């Protein structure tokens, strides 16, 4: 998976890839994914999200978002603060961002996240892949990979649910 010729961290030990098909127009799916400040309105695991710059999302744009993390064998219960910087973006095709995630007692030194969006017969194939690096998360690669997988599967499920719900609303005839 690539965005503008770039991929995830191929040397990272923690990696997960998944995909889904969404029955909604590409513009709807793209808008939901790139309007990062609205993520908390449709993603239960995202507590807050704020752009750190202005204008349309583009390479160099940064945003900070938070997500609660339960206590695990590797960390206490905490809120993870993720600072993401867009590295590559091709409008309605792909998005790649990188950055650290830090909480009390938990640190991911570098995450690299790639998203691709492919329109197929009025539906959208969304693929995503993410890698993590860091001493703490690499203490238990299997556990960290499971945590990453759970997060990405939830994200895709909630993106699909919200995009399809918005389309259903738009398709309904107006009540007179």
Oligomerization state: single chain
CA-based shape: globular
Distance between termini?
47 Å
**Element order, helices and strands?**
EHHEEEEEEH
How many runs of DSSP E, i.e. beta strands? Answer: 7
What percent strand?
35-45%
Secondary-structure-based class equals alpha+beta
Describe this structure in words.
With 176 residues, this protein is an alpha+beta fold. The protein contains three helices and seven strands, in the order E-H-H-E-E-E-E-E-E-H. A hairpin with a 2-residue loop joins strand 5 and strand 6 (106-120). The longest helix has 31 residues, at 141-171. The protein is globular. The chain starts with 13 loop residues before the first strand and ends in a 5-residue tail after the last helix. The mean pLDDT is 94.
Which characteristics define this entry?
176 residues, alpha+beta, 7 strands
List strands and helices in order, with pairings.
Layout: E1 14-22, H1 26-34, H2 39-42, E2 48-51, E3 62-69, E4 78-90, E5 94-103, E6 106-120, E7 123-133, H3 141-171
Antiparallel strand pairs: 1-7, 2-3, 3-4, 4-5, 5-6, 6-7
Helix pairs in contact: 1-3
Condensed summary:
With 176 residues, the chain is of the alpha+beta class. Helices cover 25% and strands 40% of the residues.
């Amino acid at each position: 998976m690539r965005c503008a010729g770039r991929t995830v961290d191929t040397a990272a030990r923690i990696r997960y890839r998944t995909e889904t098909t969404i029955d909604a127009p590409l513009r709807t799916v793209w808008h939901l994914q790139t309007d990062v400040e609205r993520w908390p309105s449709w993603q239960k695991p995202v507590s807050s999200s704020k752009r750190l710059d202005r204008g349309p999302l583009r390479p160099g744009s940064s945003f900070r978002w938070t997500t609660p993390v339960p206590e695990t064998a590797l960390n206490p219960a905490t809120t993870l603060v993720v600072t993401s910087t867009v590295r590559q973006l091709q409008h309605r095709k792909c998005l790649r961002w990188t950055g650290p995630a830090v909480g009390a007692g938990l640190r991911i030194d570098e995450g690299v996240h790639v998203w691709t969006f492919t329109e197929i017969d009025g539906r959208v194939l969304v693929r995503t892949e993410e890698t993590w690096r860091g001493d703490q998360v690499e203490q238990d690669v299997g556990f960290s990979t499971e945590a990453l997988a759970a997060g990405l599967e939830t994200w895709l499920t909630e993106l699909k649910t919200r995009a399809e719900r918005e389309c259903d609303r738009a398709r309904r005839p107006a009540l007179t």
